[in-house]
Amino acid sequence: MAYAPYDPKVLLGELLREARELPGGKKTQQAVATMLGKERTTVAKGETGDQVPILAVLEEWLDKLEIHGLARSAILKMHRLARFMELDPSDIAVAPWYPTEARAHTLRYWASTVVPGIVQTPAYAEELYRAAGFSVARIAESLQVRLGRQGILMRDDAPDITIVIWEAVLFHHQIGTREVMREQCARLLEVSEMPTVNLHVLPSSGANAGLGGAIGLAATDDAPELLVSDGLVEDQLTQDPARVRKARTTFSRVRSDARNRADSRDVLVEATERWK
To answer: What is the pLDDT of residues 167-194, one digit of tens each?
Structure first.
């Protein structure tokens, strides 16, 4: 794939190659790949700009090469720019959500039609991307981003996360095969047992306050709370106090009407059995 010389993907690759070839610690691409537990082509594509590694892989890459200080900061900033440039134009409006989500101390998600991305399995997410008309390359990239985001759940300093899912999503909105749904419900059951996650299932009978669309809220120490919500054509991102307050109220209502954690886990067990 050809890139302009100022393409951030190419520049990131050059920085990674230079880091690998630093005097006193020069290594082959295969040596770096072995340290990362990856194929050599992963390192090769990263150094040519053909493939931008997800942040977790890049962090480990830099650790193995013992890159610290200003050099590490420069590479991470170039990586951020390279990832941003890979976004589809329709995704750019919500791009700031990802770094905010990653450093939030409190996260809240409400889902009325599909399982929130933060807890989707790869197979479930792939079905959604395919239905949206994504190319094979874009599906692969989007899966990398989505799975990278889910590292939040496993951090030692994981944020306080509350997820409310409409029961219809578990029993009536089949995404992919029955096996895909069974695996997804099992994953939700696993997540529901994490100490930093509060997962609640809202009964599907009757109308509810959240039928207008999905909501994501991220609260950090250094900025106003950020809202990502469903739009008619694409997701909307805002810190407007009035809109954030309205979304917070909607979330509180669906959370109040949802089952408690223990009862929600019982529903997840039932849903997992339902798709066998």
So the answer is: 999 999 999 999 999 999 999 999 999 9
Handedness of CA 263, 195, 246, 124 (dihedral sign): negative
Domain with 165, as residue range(s), is: 94-274
pLDDT tens track for 23-39: 887 899 999 999 999 99
The pLDDT tens digits of the residues spanning 120-171 come to: 999 999 999 999 888 887 788 788 888 888 989 988 889 999 999 999 999 9
Residues 16 and 38 sit within 8 Å (Cβ to Cβ):
no
Q: Which of 73, 88, 83 lies closest to 52 in space, CA to CA?
A: 83
Say what the pTM is. 0.70
Is 2 domain-assigned?
no
Half-sphere exposure of 275 (CA within 13 A, CB side): 23
197-202 vs 160-166, strand pairing mode: parallel
- Other CB atoms within 10 A of residue 251 CB: 21
> Does 3 fall in a domain?
no
Tell me: do 109 and 210 sit in the same domain: yes
Question: 243 and 108 share a domain?
Answer: yes
Strand, helix or coil at 74? Answer: helix
Asked if residue 186 and residue 151 are part of one domain, the reply reads yes
Helical pair 40-48 and 8-20, crossing angle rounded to 10 deg? 130
